[in-house]
TrEMBL record:
Homodimer (via N-terminus). PANTHER family: CALCIUM-BINDING MITOCHONDRIAL CARRIER PROTEIN ARALAR1, MITOCHONDRIAL 2-OXODICARBOXYLATE CARRIER 1-RELATED. Coiled coil: none annotated. GO terms for cellular component: mitochondrial inner membrane. It is found in: Mitochondrion inner membrane. It is a multi-pass membrane protein. Residues 152-187 form the EF-hand domain. GO terms for molecular function: calcium ion binding; L-aspartate transmembrane transporter activity; L-glutamate transmembrane transporter activity. This is Mitochondrial aspartate-glutamate transporter AGC1. Keywords: Calcium, Membrane, Mitochondrion, Mitochondrion inner membrane, Repeat, Transmembrane, Transmembrane helix, Transport. The keyword NAD does not apply. Calcium-dependent mitochondrial aspartate and glutamate carrier. Transport of glutamate in mitochondria is required for mitochondrial transamination reactions and ornithine synthesis. Plays also a role in malate-aspartate NADH shuttle, which is critical for growth on acetate and fatty acids. Belongs to the mitochondrial carrier (TC 2.A.29) family.
Length: 684
């Protein structure tokens, strides 16, 4: 075997951000005990732990990845410095890393020279199929070595399939396909790919997978980078309108095949079947196709990269929440946020206020009263308000609402962020679902100090139009009162009448809303992988408001009844439980959901509009010195793409060593890889 040479090749350097990331991974696994000189170094065991994919860390995969320690150890010292580790990652980022790394490991050389044929023969055994590559040679070049690896892989796949196809039917079961494929491609038992292998069957009754389909499957999954590039090409071919909603846009197989030449027709058939979850699928979303790539990525990412990525994402969030500012700058920044929140909240409240007025009057309408019902339904109520009070009547009570929006939104958002930050795991950057509910509930409880006085004044102003109409012909008609007059009549304690019902409504509302909003942004609109657009934010806020608004309608009905002054002949309520009991007794269970649809129609667009306006104002009128740059988000996507490429190369390089070294993988061997204990069917 050739002697160890000095590294004399020029490699494409890593970006500074990735050098810093790999430096942190090194620091996490290095210690002073590995070096006799007391410097922080990485031992062979620590190196294997840092680079081995999480999916293989618990098995025997670490020993294969440990073979690359000799490649990283440029000076043959038995330990790695930080420079050695970053040098290895640089090698891994090169376009031919899948071939060059096993060559370096076999030749123990840092250049792409030659390896002794006799040493290579001892490694792979005396096999007739391999002798064609070694016959008459004293040395094997790097190019010949790379071709040998590719031939060995193809031969092994063919032999394994033939061994599994005992009855010579030309097909194997999904379980057998899974057992073989996972030896050549990043495939976990819990992945969506493993759970859908039966869809690739030639027959719906047997689900047997033919050899051509199996080859396409292995070829596809062995190189997830190719899938990602094919999706990018397909996305570029979409019309501008479809690009904006590419995650939900359906793409047909013919259109996809016409947009990329990276995949064969059969590979595209396999990809669409796995992505759509339907045999012979004719269409799929680009998002579902990307999920196949993400499935491979989760199998490939190393434990070290995963830990560092979570840490860096968590620190990014902390950095955004706690920017380095002086006391004066921080005060001005919070005042700026308060003003933006007030304007955005005011716009959201004004947009839906007519709906809120109709909702309030419908909820206050009693059945057990003297005389006929004033409104038949919400539409009838809307028409009568406009006819009797004019268009401005739809906005009666808007003033106090706008005044109260600023502190209400400010305290709700601040408390939710404050509690979430303290319930988030500092190591992983994740927050449990229960903790999300607690944060939202706390925010809802804290806002009642502002919302209850606001609500009671607003409701009395909204109901005032009815009372004015009813007493218009009386000897002593009721005079119109303003917000200030109502506040004086109520007094401080009166402003908090119905506060228990307000708590019963706002606590669960905020718990449901903030939890749904967070998961919609993360799981549906993929926040973090891309910048969320205005439509994304509007939809996330609107959709989250729907269940929150409807499920808390009973508490809102009770609150409205408690805060409205009862007219002559109407039931008087003495507290939360008394109101609930009398409403149920006199009007039935359905009365608790009066105005429920109106609450959805009001709350859903209100929260969506508020968040949309908040983002727009921040972007249009940014705080001096604050740049709303999307580059960090874009960088994370690019970083994930580069890591997917590097980790794919590392997986393939380790697989190449396995092919050469493992006796089960000698040329012509018919031995089938050991089956996994978990079958695709069990993984569903």
């Amino acid at each position: 075997m050739t002697t160890r040479a000095t590294q004399n090749q020029q490699y494409q350097p890593l970006p500074a951000s990735e050098v810093a990331r790999y430096s942190e991974i090194f620091d996490a696994y290095a210690d002073t005990e590995a070096s006799s000189q007391g410097a922080r170094c990485m031992s062979p065991v620590a190196f294997a732990q840092a680079i081995t994919p999480s999916a293989e860390a618990s098995g025997n995969g670490s020993s294969l990845y440990a073979a690359f320690f000799a490649v990283a150890d440029r000076e043959a010292r038995g330990v790695l410095t930080k420079g050695d580790f970053i040098y290895f990652q640089t090698l891994l980022s090169q376009h031919d890393a899948a071939s060059s790394l096993p060559f370096h490991a076999v030749s123990r050389s840092t250049d792409k020279g030659t390896v002794e044929a006799s040493a290579l023969a001892r490694l792979i055994g005396n096999d007739s199929a391999a002798s064609n590559y070694l016959r008459g040679k004293s040395h094997v070049s790097y190019a010949e070595f790379a071709q040998l690896i590719e031939s060995a892989r193809a031969d092994r796949i063919r032999s394994a399939f033939a061994s599994a196809d005992a009855d010579d039917s030309g097909s194997i079961s999904p379980e057998q396909a899974y057992a073989i494929a996972r030896e050549f491609a990043p495939l976990e038992s819990s992945s969506i790919v493993a759970s859908r292998l039966s869809l690739l069957g030639q027959s719906p009754s047997t689900h047997a997978i033919g050899y051509p389909t199996f080859l396409a499957l292995v070829s596809l999954l062995s190189d997830p980078v190719r899938i990602r590039r094919a999706v990018d090409e397909a996305m570029h071919s979409l019309p501008p309108k479809q690009k904006a909603d590419a995650s939900v846009t359906q793409v047909t197989r013919p259109d996809f095949a016409g947009a990329t030449s990276l995949l064969t027709p059969l590979e595209i058939d396999v990809l669409f079947t796995l992505a759509a979850g339907q045999a012979n699928a004719e269409s799929a979303t680009l998002s579902s196709i990307n999920d196949i790539t993400h499935s491979c990525y989760r199998s490939l990412v190393s434990a070290g990269s995963e830990k560092q990525q979570l840490k860096s994402e968590s620190s990014d969030v902390d950095h955004q929440k706690k920017p380095s500012r002086t006391i004066l700058q921080e005060t001005l920044f919070q005042a700026y946020n308060f003003a933006v929140g007030a304007v955005a909240g005011g716009i959201g409240a004004a947009v839906v206020y007519p709906i809120d007025l109709v909702k309030t009057r419908m909820q206050n309408q009693r059945v057990a009263v003297v005389g006929e019902m004033m409104y038949k339904n919400s539409i009838d109520c809307f028409r009568k308000v406009v006819r009797n009070e004019g268009a401005l009547g739809l906005y009666r009570g808007l003033g106090p609402q706008l005044v109260g929006v600023a502190p209400e939104k400010a305290i709700k958002l601040t408390v939710n962020d404050f509690v979430r930050a303290r319930l988030t795991d500092k190591d992983t950057g994740k927050i449990a679902f229960v903790s999300e509910l607690v944060a939202g509930a706390t925010a809802g409880a804290s806002q009642v100090v502002f919302t209850n006085p606001l609500e009671i004044v607003k409701i009395r102003l909204q109901i005032q139009g009815e009372m004015l109409k009813e007493t218009a012909g009386a000897a002593a008609p009721i005079a119109r009162r303003g917000a200030v007059t109502i506040i004086k009549e109520l007094g401080l304690l009166g402003l908090y009448k119905g506060a228990s019902a307000c708590l019963l409504r706002d606590v669960p509302f905020s718990a449901i809303y903030f939890s749904c909003y967070s998961h919609l942004k993360k799981d549906v609109f993929r926040e973090g992988e891309r910048q969320l657009g205005i439509v994304d934010l509007l939809l996330a806020g609107a959709i989250a408001g729907m269940p929150a608004a409807y499920l808390t309608t009973p508490a809102d009905v009770i609150k409205t009844r408690l805060q409205v002054v009862a007219k002559k002949g109407e039931t008087v309520y003495n507290g939360l439980f008394d109101a609930a009991r009398k409403i149920y007794k006199e009007e039935g269970f359905k009365a608790f959901f009066k105005g429920g649809p109106a609450r959805i129609v009001r709350s859903s667009p209100q929260f969506g509009t508020t968040l949309m306006c908040y983002e727009l104002i921040h972007r249009m009128i940014p705080f001096p010195g604050e740049e709303h740059d999307t580059k960090p988000s874009v960088d994370r996507v690019a970083q994930r793409a580069r890591e997917l490429s590097s980790q794919t190369a590392l997986f393939q390089a380790a697989n190449a060593l396995r092919l050469l070294h493992d006796s089960n993988y000698k040329f012509g061997s018919p031995v089938l890889p050991a089956k996994s204990s978990v079958s695709p069917a069990q993984a569903v």
